[in-house]
Amino acid sequence: MPLLLLKDLPRYECLLEVAQQFPGLDPSACEVFLHLLRTGDEAFRVTEEHFHAKGLSQGRFTVLMLLYDKTCGETHAFTPAQLAEMSGVTRATMTGLIDTLERDGMVTRRPHPEDRRQLSVELTKKGIARLDDLLPEHFRRIASVMSVLSETERKTMVRLLSKIAASASETFPASVAGGGA
Amino acid sequence: MPLLLLKDLPRYECLLEVAQQFPGLDPSACEVFLHLLRTGDEAFRVTEEHFHAKGLSQGRFTVLMLLYDKTCGETHAFTPAQLAEMSGVTRATMTGLIDTLERDGMVTRRPHPEDRRQLSVELTKKGIARLDDLLPEHFRRIASVMSVLSETERKTMVRLLSKIAASASETFPASVAGGGA
DNA sequence: CCAATTAAGTTAGGAGGCTAACTATCAGCC
DNA sequence: GGCTGATAGTTAGCCTCCTAACTTAATTGG
User: Fold this and answer.
1) Which residues are CB-contacts of B111 (< 8 A; sequence separation ≥ 6)?
2) Is residue B100 within 8 Å of B135, Cβ to Cβ?
3) Which of A2, A30, A84, A178 is the most exposed place for a label (fewest CB within 10 A)?
């Protein structure tokens, strides 16, 4: 659980109170912001706890999913740099993720036939089996958490979340890794 | 930036495709879920980058804010255990946060007069000054990111986010640290 | 009144992020 | 054909979070 958040969000009345001391404070904006962080953290926790129980983490899961292509019955092969780019982490971080995954037998590093600088990362049978074991419950959890929203509410959420994400990445572009959306 | 996420979210059509392989996969639920994680991460990044520029982190900022009470003109005093409980981190993590904050002169540890097991953590003048320096821009960033939403949209967001958070913490209660609504 | 339990805080060790620096390889260009 | 620069991957060091074990102090109960 990566985010550290106030367990009990500031009450709205409290925000209004503080707003008197800080002219720049927009109470309803802060309220949305805090709820967004808190709910994002809760959602993250729901899947992360499941990953952890299966010996994975969000990062390792993302790597496995990138290599996984159920529809083709095949597995993709990517270089560490490609995986890092698609995952949104640095190449150094990807080295660590692949180290752990390879140690646990989920993926293999194979040399690239033409460019000896590059490696090809591929899922092993064990990695595929781990995903097949994990995914049903993973999707069940997501469906369960979101079951409280109607289809209309889901559309609304996606629309508003997209507006916020676009606003954030345009107004405050990520310093290094791409924040394009 | 704690969360690792796909840089480019899976397209909705792609989700529909995969859904054929996984009967339990609810495409619109996954779509909301992915957008929620992604937008939460973007929002987190916007303030975290600012904290970092001011020599703080989300965790240390939360501690300072818990000790800060602008309206009273006073600072609160809490024990590390209270701060950990309010922040939603373990006592061990709080020890580390207070270590760093004390090293940087933002807070002080003082012995509790009656119970020698306990400590009292208080803001220093320097800590207050750091917050006074940081908060205007902090609130400006939040207001700026949320400026793309109308007041009606903000109310909608808070309502829907609350539903999701409640659903998550009820259906999948946090394993150790409290997940109370 | 002293042993056992509980509680507060710290320490030790692990995982996963990051940046910066390093090594090996490839590509370009006189 | 051998510099020069760019690219792929790794390594080293730092930070923040975690769990588990430990130390010290307070409480409880025979």
Assistant:
1) B118, B119, B120
2) no
3) A178
Question: Does the residue B146 lie in any domain?
Answer: yes
How many domains would you assign to chain A? 2
Neighbours of B85 (CB within 10 A): 17
In the chain, the amino acid numbered B38 is: R
**Residue-wise pLDDT tens digits, B13-62:** 555 566 667 777 888 999 999 899 989 988 988 998 899 888 898 889 99
Which residues on A lie below 8 Å from B140 (Cβ)? 24
Rounded distance in angstroms from the CA atom of residue A92 to the C1' atom of nucleotide C19: 10
Burial of A135 (0-12, 13-18, 19+ CB in 10 A): buried
Whether residue A15 has pLDDT greater than 70: no
CA B129 to centroid of chain Cα atoms? 22
- Tell me, yes or no, whether B46 lies in a domain: yes
Query: Tokens standing for B175?
Result: 């394993």
Q: Which residues of B38-72 are buried (b: 16+ CB within 10 A; e: fewer)?
A: bbbbbbbbbbbebbeeeebebbbbbbbbbbbebee
CATH number at A62 reads: 1.10.10.10
Whether residues A3 and A49 share a domain: the answer is yes
Write out the two tokens for A41.
Answer: 């953290």
